[in-house]
Amino acid sequence: MNETEIIYGKNPVIEAIKSRRIHRIWIIESTYKRLREQLHVDRALISVVSKAEVSKIAERPDHQGIIAKVDKFVFSPIDALLSARSGVVLALDGITDPRNLGAIVRSAVILGAVGIVIPSKNSSDITPVVCHASAGGTEHIAIAKVDSILHTINLFKERGFAIACADLPSDGVISIDEFDPPNKLALVMGSEEGLRKRVRAASDFVLTIPQSSDFDSFNVSVAAGIILWELSSKKKRPSNTALWCQSPETLFCVLPGNCKPMG
Fold first, then answer.
1. pLDDT tens, 82-119?
2. Strand ordering across the sheet containing 22-28
3. Are the beta carbons of 227 and 113 closer than 8 angstroms?
4. Where are the beta strands (DSSP E) in the chain?
5. Residue 194 carries which DSSP code?
6. Closest CA to 84 of 229, 200, 239
7. What is the tens place of the pLDDT at every residue in 57-74?
8. SS3 at position 217
9. How many whole angstroms separate alpha carbon 229 and alpha carbon 235?
10. Which of the four, 89, 94, 181, 192, has the lowest number of CB atoms within 10 Å?
11. Fold held by 78-234
């Protein structure tokens, strides 16, 4: 039997309906009246309950009047991203704050990244908090979990990707507004504690965002959004729609032009 989790919030639940098995939805009456046309599930799976009951099940107050019991998030195999013929893949190294991770996912979906790689250690997992912070974006992009970001960087190099990392302004770095992105790019974003030296050394390019002062650095999710916007504005990217669906018989991904159904 598949593991399940409780996700919360309007967008995460609506988007999860499109990609995950829904076991139960709890929703308050006013929210149900507003969203009923978007809840494309068997009516028997929907329970209209009080706000207090939703809060009790969710164990948090910021649920927007709707929560759902769903199959746990399914990661994509790393080969689905390594096989991409073009575009930007984000490799996130040490992003432990789930809200930062969710915000990065949201920007990645909106700005056309092909996928995201996170490490199995020293990183937030794809939790309900991440799903909420991403506004349901976790359901629309391939996310792979790997043992080592450094090893994965080398795998991307072997598949013809250029590797860029983001760091603070300093000598020898390239301003993002002056960077001409290659056809296949793996972009490494580190934690706010700083980019690891080994990651920087493994990169072909070190990118930075111009700042008008040295007051402070950008939050990592803000920095990721700025860099992705700059990259997407310079070069048209393929659609990133990556929808992982689970049924009793099949797990498959739809990543146009990049990966095939998997049995």
1. 999 999 999 999 999 999 999 999 999 999 999 999 99
2. 4-8, 66-71, 22-28, 46-49
3. no
4. 4-8, 22-28, 46-49, 66-71, 87-93, 115-119, 142-146, 162-166, 174-175, 184-190, 205-208, 243-246, 251-254
5. B
6. 239
7. 999 999 999 999 999 999
8. coil
9. 10
10. 192
11. Alpha/beta knot (3.40.1280)
For tokens 């090893």, name the residue. 151
Lowest mean pLDDT among 26-35, 75-84, 196-205, 230-239: 230-239
d(C-alpha 229, C-alpha 108), whole Å = 9
Does position 191 have pLDDT exceeding 90, yes or no? Answer: no
- C-alpha span between 17 and 19 (Å, rounded): 6
Which tokens sit at 47? 């329970």
Q: What is the pLDDT of residue 4?
A: 96
Cα end-to-end distance, the chain, whole Å: 18
What residue ranges do the domains of the chain occupy? Answer: 4-71, 78-234
Rounded to the nearest integer, the mean pLDDT of the chain is 88
Residue 245 pLDDT > 80: no
Label the pairing between strands 243-246 and 251-254: antiparallel
Tell me whether domains 4-71 and 78-234 share a fold. Answer: no
User: In CATH, what number does 4-71 get?
Assistant: 3.30.1330.30
Specify the pTM: 0.87
Cα three-residue angle 104-238-255, rounded to 5 degrees: 80
- pLDDT at position 216: 67
pLDDT higher than 60, residue 250 = no
